[in-house]
Design brief:
Length: about 160
């Protein structure tokens, strides 16, 4: 509920309470003859408060229902607005993500390339033949992932 609506509702409540108090005051003053004491008992403030509170609460409930009906539209509109705001960043972020992952894949490929160079003498036989084959496979895999990541960056 916006402040203007809240102020309007509070104003209505105060006016209604004022009318009720004035009406009760007039009823009490009309019931007592003018020759008798002029002391007029105060109206029952608890009862007036209950009436005003009930009216204000019903108005607040109505306003809350109206806002609740509009909430899904507001949520969709906020989602569309956020999507439109972040759309340019999504493309740049995607390109940056591909470049960063391509760089890290290149680092792993470089590690396996140095490992392959270090054990190049044992490529055909020897105790590190299996290690050589695994390093070669990992070098090929990470080189492919790095190259494909940069290639996809160029396509965007």
């Amino acid at each position: 509920m916006n402040p203007n609506e809240f102020g309007k509702r509070m104003g209505i409540g105060v006016r209604v309470a004022g009318r009720i108090a004035k009406k009760r005051f007039e009823e009490k003053s009309a019931a007592t003859p003018t020759g008798q004491s002029q002391s007029v008992p105060l109206p029952n403030l608890g009862q007036m408060h209950a009436q005003v509170t009930a009216q204000v609460n019903s108005q607040v409930r109505e306003a809350t229902r109206e806002v609740a009906k509009k909430t899904p539209r507001y949520a969709r509109a906020a989602g569309r607005g956020a999507g439109a705001f972040f759309r340019p960043f999504r493309r740049v972020g995607g390109i940056l993500w591909l470049e960063v992952t391509g760089f890290f894949f290149a680092l792993f490929a470089l590690y396996f390339a140095t490992d392959l160079w270090r054990i190049r003498q044992n490529y055909a036989q020897g105790p590190q033949h299996q290690h050589f084959l695994i390093s070669a496979a990992m070098l090929i895999l990470f080189a492919y992932l790095s190259a494909s990541s940069f290639w996809r960056t160029k396509r965007k």
